[in-house]
Amino acid sequence: MPLGDSITGNPGCWRALLWKKLQDNNIKNTDFVGTQKAQGCGFDYDGENEGHGGMLAADIASQNLLDGWLKETKPDIVMMHLGTNDAWSNRRPEDTIQAFDKLVDQMRSSRDTMKILVAQIIPLNPDGCPECGRRVETLNNAVVEWAPTKSNDKSPITVVDCHKDFDVKAMTRDGVHPNDKGDERLANAWYEPLVKAIKG
């Protein structure tokens, strides 16, 4: 289950590239799941996801939205790229981490062996928010500190560094959403951690 906001779902073509890379490497025992359908990315792919444009991690947690999505789709692995809108809205990093805590609890209630991949999210530099980049870096640092405290052997949490080597000027359309280069960078960042989770 790819879980996130518009970076994941609208259109989220990094998911299409990631799926294709799995197929090209003969990793075909996969089923991307979610209540949201694929958007056009130039070729057919398994595009179901939980990328909800504009959503804050805090809102998904407080409104218990994930619980219903999990019941409907029953994933074994969750790939979570969340927190962009929280940072943009100047939510405190500790509040976003608290939301992540609740979301992970819901994932494990759905499946106690859930494998959870959590992104250090891509840089953020929209018009009118010069401090957004710093907020994302602060959140990403908090994720690195939090993940080991929440991880366990039965349901491991793996931090995936989507921020490193992501040039926000060259790899986004608008300082927020990935362009073709950004999609390629994201697909590459997710690939090895996802393969390890699938095979583990």
TrEMBL record:
SUPFAM superfamilies: SGNH hydrolase. Residues 3-184 form the SGNH hydrolase-type esterase domain. This is Multidomain esterase. InterPro entries: Ester_Hydrolysis_Enzymes (IPR051532), SGNH_hydro (IPR013830), SGNH_hydro_sf (IPR036514). One of its GO terms (molecular function) is phosphatidylcholine lysophospholipase activity.
